[in-house]
Amino acid sequence: MKHLQPKTLRVYLAILANTRFSQRGLLEMLNRDGSVSIGFVNDVVNDLVLKRLVERSRRTSMETVSTIETVSTAKMTGGYILSDAVGMLNLISLFRRMPELRLFSRNIRAGRQEVIRELAGRDVVFCLGSAMEMYSNHFHPEEVSFYASDAESARLFLADAPAGNTKVSCYRPDYVRDAGEIPALFRDPLFAGKSRNVARTSKVQTAIDMFCDGKGAYAAPLLEELWGVAP
Fold it and tell me: Taking the model in full, what pTM does it have?
């Protein structure tokens, strides 16, 4: 299966997090390490226009309309509108599958909330159902899921726990080119945030992950809140 480049995923994430945007606005948001060029952003946006997931705005000037509070609302010229969020989520899920990103799983003898409390003090970001549960009281996941900055450290930490019935799974963050970029990714509000000192994926990233795990229907509360649509 063809996989998306990390920088392509980052552009998709930024567009989903901003229903109105400009190419230069995306570039300023994403190009902190120099890995994304305006030409690359242009290619990605034009491809999404051809796929009818993004439309050119009829307005010559607009403010970025963001689904997260931390993104700048600077004036932008020559803008675009995200026209089909669900279609874009489905597109990403064609090339990105969470089972392929799973590094390891272990069944341990502890409750889910206890596991989350223990892992929260480590350099992890909870994802999938574990993040969804933090956004919706109606969702109760089958496993504790997280991205780890140091997967081997997390593996060793969980290896000491007695075996039991609570499934815990560690996933590889695929938005980076190498492990050295993970700490910056975990600080990026497009990807993650904290609540009560527990790091979890952003609402947009949580929706992406749920679709990439074949559970898009369970992300319905986020889809309605972020984009006003149903899966």
Answer: 0.88
d(CA 140, CA 128): 11
Of 187, 195, 142, nearest in space to 167 by CA: 142
Distance in angstroms (rounded) separating the CA atoms of residues 216 and 72: 28
Handedness of CA 176, 177, 178, 181 (dihedral sign): negative
- Provide mean pLDDT across the span 139-156: 91
What is the C-alpha separation between 142 and 168, in angstroms, rounded?
9
Task: Say how far apart CA 81 and CA 121 lie, in whole Å.
Answer: 39
Amino acid code (one letter) for 119: L
Rounded Cα distance, 86 and 196, in Å: 30
Give the model confidence (pLDDT) of 23-56 as tens digits: 999 998 886 666 788 999 999 999 999 999 999 9
Token pair for residue 78? 């020559």
Domains annotated for the chain, with CATH where assigned, are 6-83 (1.10.10), 98-227 (3.30.460)
d(CA 207, CA 191): 11
- Give the position of tokens 């341990």: 108
Specify the residue for token string 């272990």.
Answer: 106
- Confidence band, pLDDT 50/70/90 cuts, at residue 187: very high
